[in-house]
Amino acid sequence: MATLHRQTLERLGEEICRGMYRPGETLPIEPVLCERLGVSRIVVREVVKSLASKGMLEVRRKLGTVVLEPAAWNLFDPDIISWRGRTQTFDEPLACEMMELRRIIEPAACRLAAARIEDDERERLAAALEAMRRAIGGDGDYVAADFEFHSVILAACRNQFVRQMQNAMAAVLHTSFDLVSEVPGGPERSFPMHEALCAAIRKGDCDAAERAAVTIIEQAERDLQEHFKRARR
Fold it and tell me: How many whole angstroms separate alpha carbon 115 and alpha carbon 38?
C-alpha cells in the first residue's frame, strides 16, 4: 500500500500535469494546501521538495511555490511520464515524440541484446512471449507481459548507460503499451512481430533483431495514430 507521502505526490503531480495549476501560477499557501489534500505540513513540504527535484516546481522567496513550464520538467522521470500518460496532457505530439525515442533506442538495444543475451534471459524472454500469447486468449494481462518482454531486452544489453535509462524507458514503454492496447486487434497484430523478435534475439541474429524491432515500432505508431483518431471521434 502506498504511503501518505506517495499518495499525495501522485495526486499533486497528476493535478499539475492535468493543468489544475498552470505554468507560472503559484500553489496555494501551505495551510490551504494541507486542508485540501488532507495531510500535514510535513507531508506537503516533502511532496513539494520531491516535485521541485523533478523540475515541476520552484520555491521562490516572498513569492511562494511556482509551477514551472513543462520544458523544465525532467521528462525522463518515470513518475512524470506516467502522470502525463494518465492525464489529458499526453497529447498526440507528445506521443509522437515518445515513439521517436523508441525508434532511437529500441532497435539498437535489440541488436545488443541479441549479441549479449544469456541463457536465463532467453528463457525469461520466451516466458514473457508465452504470457502475451495467453493474454490474447483472455488469460492474463497483455500489457504486463509485453512490458516484461521489453524489460528483459533492455537488461540484456549490458550497457551501463541503457541501464541508467531503464526506469525512464520502462515508463515510456508502459505508457505506449497502455495506449496501443486500447486499439481493437492491436495485441493480435503485434504478437507475430514479437515472435520474430524473440526468435532473432534467442538465436543471436543481430540484424534480424534490429529489423524486427523497427517493424514492431512501426506497427505501434500506426496503432497510436488509430488511438488518437478514435479519441477525436
Answer: 52
Helices (H), 19-118: 30-37, 41-53, 78-85, 92-116
Q: Which domains does the chain have, with CATH numbers?
A: 4-72 (1.10.10.10), 91-232 (1.20.120.530)
CA geometry: angle 53, 71, 97, nearest 5 deg = 115
Q: How far is CA 120 from CA 44, 45, 73, 132, in A?
A: 44, 44, 37, 19
Establish how many alpha carbons lie within 13 A of residue 103's alpha carbon, considering only the half-sphere containing its beta carbon: 11
The C-alpha cell that represents 69 in the structure block: 513550464
What span, in angstroms and rounded, lies between the C-alpha atoms of 174 and 82? 8
- The pLDDT-based confidence of 89 (bands split at 50, 70, 90) is low
Which pLDDT tens digit goes with each residue over 4-56? 999 999 999 999 998 999 999 999 999 999 999 999 999 999 999 999 999 99
Inter-CA distances, 160 with 74, 148, 165, 167, Å: 20, 19, 9, 13
Q: Do 61 and 71 form a contact (C-beta atoms < 8 A)?
A: no
Of 67, 95, 65, 77, nearest to 175 by C-alpha is 95
Phi (first) and psi of residue 109, to 5 degrees: -65, -40
Name every residue whose Cβ is closer than 8 Å to that of residue 69 and which is 6 or more positions away in sequence: 23, 24
Greatest Cα pair distance, the chain, in angstroms, is: 63
